[in-house]
Design a protein that fits this description.
This protein has 134 residues and is α/β, with parallel strands linked by helices. It has one domain (25-133): Nucleotidyltransferase, domain 5. The chain has helices spanning 70-81, 103-113, 126-133, and strands spanning 25-30, 34-39, 43-49, 62-63, 66-67, 92-97, 120-125. The strands form two sheets. The protein has a five-stranded mixed β-sheet with strand order 3-2-1-6-7. Strand 6, helix 2 and strand 7 form a beta-alpha-beta unit. The longest helix has 12 residues, at 70-81. The radius of gyration is 20 Å and the shape is elongated. The termini are far apart.
Amino acid sequence: MTVIRSPLPAPVRHRHWPLCRRCSGIALDLGSARTRAWIAGRGMVLDVPTVTFPGTGAIHPVQRGTIVDIPGTARMLERLLGHRLPRLGRPLVVVTAPVLDGLAFRTAARTAVEVLRPRAVLTVPGARAVALAA
């Protein structure tokens, strides 16, 4: 008796994008007064005051649209969003940037957002983000 085996499937050359379908992207608005976060598929998940409590009192890590305390901002993002993300997921993070801030804000935002293990970090000027949302 002869057994006929089917040929093996062709190897997959490219991974499907996005790798994490449940958490494909996060949009962050790090404002001086409030921090807002939107996760794809879940909608707005966060709208809280931008403040941290490292020990002695309250500290505002973002002042006048500029990140002044990068470790404080990273700690705040980890505590607020860390449990909402899957452990193995690497989301695309979009951060709104003030229009007049330059490379310094983008570098500080990228450093602070690294605690979320992003696949990529995009910075979008705030005016453009509002225009896209309208």
